[in-house]
Design a protein that fits this description.
The protein is an alpha/beta fold and 349 residues long. It is built from 12 helices and 10 strands.
Length: 349
């Protein structure tokens, strides 16, 4: 089965051709980082306008790179949520137009499920039925959650952020430190050579136990990053001179707090679920410090670690096509791409 994947949920316009949910024949991504950098974050109007211009270019490039004729496609898979609704609509409209012109079905893909599928794109990655059941940390600019995956299409959210996502927290911290956008890579670069114990920033919900959120999630497996950002803000107000001599120390301390928060919740979830496979997906999964912490956790809990290949951590279309392809191989239906849903939940079969 050959699928054309399309992704436009935020600020990347991407297209990819994937065979049988695992084999990437092409992957083309148009990034808008330069357009949003002056604003320190994604501006929805700028993003959607950029998608309009980039869509025909990246789809044509993906098909050419794959060496596949349009008639050889079996279906088109497109992200229909969650994400920025104005951005989702561009990809969705383009996918529908292609589907109508080619006479091919157009399937809607959940963005979070796509990230989960991305872990299986490495040639050495196990097949989903061999890896599951597993515990996955989904961590990006828009989403931070812990997902228990028992099979393709079978998911349970164990914990999620109660405010900022980890990537959003890194963006805000980098802005306060004058490091630019996007914040994750900027802080990781600035932290090199810095002392991670220079300032002890809060880890968020450190002492929360035996409580649940309004939707029944265990509070000690949930995340909170808004207090960390505020702690950095007030530290800089009290010690503005440290931006000159201790920027690397501040960046290292801030990054350590974010990654500690993630690792602490992962360890609790491993203890509760007894999962023997641990995975990490999403843009923040590229962070070397986080990868090191997860490797140590996996060893301590005798778990197999699956890390999404670096090329497929940030938003891309290969993961979208992979998600749809894996569902077909698992005997599941793909929903038709009818409407954009900015708050689309991850729901198990």
């Amino acid at each position: 089965m050959i699928l054309l994947g399309i992704e436009s949920s935020c600020d990347e316009t991407a297209a990819a051709v994937v065979r049988d949910g695992r084999h990437v024949l092409s992957s083309v991504i148009h990034s808008q980082i330069a357009s949003h950098r002056p604003y320190g974050g994604v501006v929805p109007e700028i993003a959607s306008r950029a998608h309009v211009g980039a869509f025909p270019v990246v789809t044509a490039a993906a098909m050419e790179q794959a060496g596949i004729a349009w008639r050889d496609l079996d279906a088109i898979a497109v992200t229909h949520g969650p994400g920025l609704v104005s951005s989702l609509l561009i990809g969705l409209s383009g996918a529908r137009a292609l589907g109508q012109a080619l006479g091919k079905p157009v399937w809607g893909v959940n963005h979070i499920e796509a990230h989960l599928a991305g872990m299986f794109l490495a040639p050495a990655a196990p097949a989903p039925d061999a890896a599951c059941p597993l515990l996955a940390l989904m961590v990006s600019g828009g989403h931070t959650c812990l997902v228990e995956m028992t099979a393709v299409g079978q998911y349970r959210i164990l914990g999620q952020t109660l405010d900022d996502a980890a990537g959003e927290c890194l963006d805000k911290g980098a802005n306060l430190l004058g490091l630019g956008y996007p914040g994750g890579p900027a802080i990781e670069r600035a932290a090199q050579g810095g002392h991670p114990d220079y300032v002890h920033f809060p880890r968020g919900l450190e002492h929360a136990r035996h409580r649940t959120t309004d939707n029944g999630l265990a509070i000690d497996m949930c995340f909170s990053f808004s207090g960390l950002k505020t702690a950095l803000l007030y530290h800089l107000k009290k010690h503005p001179e440290e931006l000159d001599g201790h920027r690397a120390d501040l960046a290292a301390s801030y990054q350590q707090a974010v990654m500690d928060s993630l690792a602490q919740r992962v360890e609790r979830a491993l203890a509760v679920t007894g999962a023997r496979t641990l995975a990490c997906v999403g843009g923040v999964a590229k962070n070397a410090l986080l990868r090191g912490k997860l490797e140590a956790l996996a060893r301590r809990h005798s778990a197999t670690l699956i890390l999404t290949p670096l090329a497929y951590c940030t938003d891309n279309a290969a993961m979208v096509a992979a998600a749809a392809g894996l569902r077909v191989l698992a005997g599941l239906d793909n929903p038709p791409a009818l409407e954009a849903d900015p708050s689309l939940p991850l729901v198990g079969e």
